[in-house]
Amino acid sequence: MRLIRTSGDKLLFHLGQREKQALGVVLKLYPRIPSAHQPLSKTATLPDQDAAQRLLDEALAEQRAENKNKVRAFLANPKRFSVDEKGWRLTLSPVDVEWLLQILNDIRVGSWIILGAPEEKEEELNETTAPHIWAMEVSGYFQMGLLEALGKGG
Amino acid sequence: MPETATPEILPGSVQEEETKTNLDLEPGYLVICWNDPVNLMEYVTHVFQRVFGWRQKKAEFHMLQVHRQGKSVLVRESMEKAEHYVHQLQKYSLHATMERDE
Prior knowledge:
The structure holds two protein chains of two kinds. By secondary structure, chain A is α+β, with helices and mostly antiparallel strands.
């Protein structure tokens, strides 16, 4: 994945055949972080903490549902991808980039949680772990591509 | 006409006193980001810039603090604002919480 050019408020990327395929497969994994996984506080020192936690969980669940529909629409939109000589062109707005970064990080962090949230980077590769390690690495790869396009990677 | 010495009231001094009183009454809440070995460093820096509007240098400082020390206190805010920031950071799947500043 590489940025070809920015034009107005659009960013134009080139993706190889396998990259496009991998992006589609990995995005379909969204959402990966279990619902109600994120605590508002580590200590019980907030007033009405249960109610505040419930509100946060509800807000995140609502957002997750909305994002799931957006991922489906993103992959189904024929204007999003166009064929070029060596693969595909992907057109994104800065808002799309920001949204995709969030989606990809959910998949990356969620896959890591499924793996047992290991402290060490190297996870044993076997039949069970391979799909999750793949999802982590592929989502990270696309995140870096987007961050580099924003001038923040590498 | 001689000048008379009257107690000087500087503009804003009354308001400042009131503000201090309000701050004393309202406890502060710390927004903390915790280390997750899975998050990309560039991504965390980017999120801090987006959520807090920080310059890259400040965002990198806090990202490195998270990475090296396991956590970083990002801001101290009222409860409402702290909740807002935690929600924003969690939208990006960062491990963020708020704790009462004792």
